[in-house]
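User: Structure please.
Assistant: Input sequence and predicted structure:
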Amino acid sequence: MTGASPSQQSLLAGRRWRAWEPLLWLAAFATPLLLPAHAFIVNEIAIVALFAISLDLVLGYTGIVSLGHAAFFGMGAYSAALFAKYLMPDPLVGLAVGIAAATLLGALFSVTIQRGSDLTRLMVTLGAALLLMELANKLDWLTGGADGLQGVVMGPLLGRFEFDLTGRTAAWYSLTVLLVLFFLARRLVDSPLGATLKAIRDNRLRAMAIGIPVGSRLAVSYTVAAGMAGAAGALLAQTTGFASLDLFEFHRSADVMLMLVVGGTGWLYGGVAGAIVFKLMQDALSAMTPQYWTFWLGLFLVLLVLIGRDRLIRPWTWFTRERRP
């Protein structure tokens, strides 16, 4: 753009789609049609990828460490499931309700991450998720308690496309929501607001010194990420027809953090890549060794940390010496 400053040119360059990106998304949407037996795993990958991207907004772009991101995931799932069971089975309206409920919860909990160290935030966010899990357990007359919320039947998508046993409608639905929210998240991180979030991540004191309202920026990032996590939870409840206390448990937050370890933080496609690798490995390893699949997954993560992501992906770099100045 003529007359644009270098910073503006950098932001605009980040918004441009690379040549390989449309091919990647076309391949994702074609997979349920070309490989109908894998439509359900595509749906799961799309949901957890959206969940991972939401965590990346607060962890990779803002520097907020959270072990309770499952709170918003579960809130979105239960809100959408309860809305479909007792009020209206329309998927899109239920999705909006799930996003709204998780966003409001994120705005409320954003007060808890304003101060303190990373360890404090870990404990506070984890406690929030455990608190919601216990609340859902006590309100068994509404949520089903430990048995879960059953009997959730979704209406046809757009009044036309049924959620059938093939899973293709569910996969395309989740992929579409993922694509839309991925585009919105990309616009956010490549905007001036996103630049201030990165400045806070790099050095909070320096960001405060140059006049960035750190508290409000943290609240915005946390609230937006909560809404995206709620969308992922709503998709899971709608496409499976079930919501349980498992959605609030610690392993949900831990798994999505492991996905970012695999794919990388501070890069939206890191959440997508991590979700693909994690879910495919989980599916393959659990089929081969149902009892010990977590061992092999843990071994892969240990190798990833010891060897490094770049060297594990590009093994030929093992034989090249790093040049030092």
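Confidence is low (pLDDT under 50) at residues 321-325.
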